[in-house]
Each structure stands twice: as structure tokens, then as C-alpha cells.
Amino acid sequence: MSDNSLHTHTSRESCIDRDRDDRIADMADRQARFSGYIDRWWDDVSVRQLAGVLAVHGRTAVRLGQFLRDRRGVGGFGEPPMCIDEVIADLNDNLDRLSRHIDERWDELDSGRVKLWCRLVTVYSQNCVRLGQLMGVRRAVREEWGIEL
Questions:
Q1: Minimal CA–CA distance to 120: which of 49, 36, 38?
Q2: For the CA atoms of 134, 26, 54, 70, what is the dihedral angle to 10 degrees?
Q3: Which residues contact 90 (CB under 8 A, 6 or more apart)?
């Protein structure tokens, strides 16, 4: 192997690492913007739309957490990724808001809307599990970096 081929290989790895870090930053930014959209849309969407939006929010939060965990396993970070705290806080805030939304409107439940309300409760429970998964990722990253929990 010549020195040039080794240099090229190392440069490609650096580019991949940089691209991965850029993707993580981009995903974190999009997740934060999505949380802002949810805040603005909350009262203007139907129950079905709200359930769909919150389900996507929870799934994308977990995917970001998985990406952070996988990135850690592939070669670590230049610095600890604290965007996970913001993602967890946003998901937790939306869970609190959804819980209040369900409780406040429970008396409005009628036979024609049972399926929609069940969907909201399902999304709530799924996002609770997703929140737990994200907290596990955060714990693993912090333990690796020796950061107090």
C-alpha cells in the first residue's frame, strides 16, 4: 500500500465522520423545528392529524437517539452530543401536553370518536417508551464521557 492510498483512505474516513456529524446536527435541528411546528399547530389540527404528527415526532426522536448511539459506537465524538437533552425535553413536553389534552377532553369522548381517542392514547404510550429509549441513549453517552447524570 502506498502512502497516497493510506492518505486517501484516512481522508475518506474523516469525510464520513464529518458527514455523520453534520447529519446528526441536521437531524437535531429538524427535530427542534418540528417541535416548534407542533406547538403552533396543536389547536388547529384534528385529533387524527395530532396523533399522526406526534407519532412522527416520537419516531424521529428515537431515530436521532439511535443515530447518536451508533455514531458513538463507530468512532466516538469530538465532543459529547448534548442535543439529546433538547430532544428528550421536547418529547417530554409534548407527552405532558398530550396527557393534559386527553384528560381535558375525556368527557367529550363519544362512540363516533373512540377510534381516534384510542389512537391518541396509543401514541402517548408509544412515545413514553420512546422517551425511555432516548434516556437510555443519553445515559450511555454520558457514561462514556464521564458526565454526571
A1: 49
A2: -30
A3: 31, 32, 35, 57, 61
pTM listed for this prediction: 0.72
Q: Nearest Cα to 64, choosing from 143, 128, 133?
A: 133
CA-to-CA separations, 46 to 2, 24, 51, in angstroms, rounded:
63, 31, 9
- Contact criterion met (CB below 8 Å) for 34 and 60: yes
Average pLDDT, rounded, for the chain: 79
CA distances from 17 to 8, 14, 23, 56, 75 (A): 14, 5, 10, 27, 8
57 versus 85: which is more confidently predicted? 57
pLDDT (0 to 100) of residue 130: 93
> Using CA of residue 80, residue 83, residue 89, residue 95, what is the dihedral sign?
negative
Per-residue pLDDT reduced to its tens digit, 21-65: 788 888 888 888 999 999 998 989 988 899 999 999 999 999 888
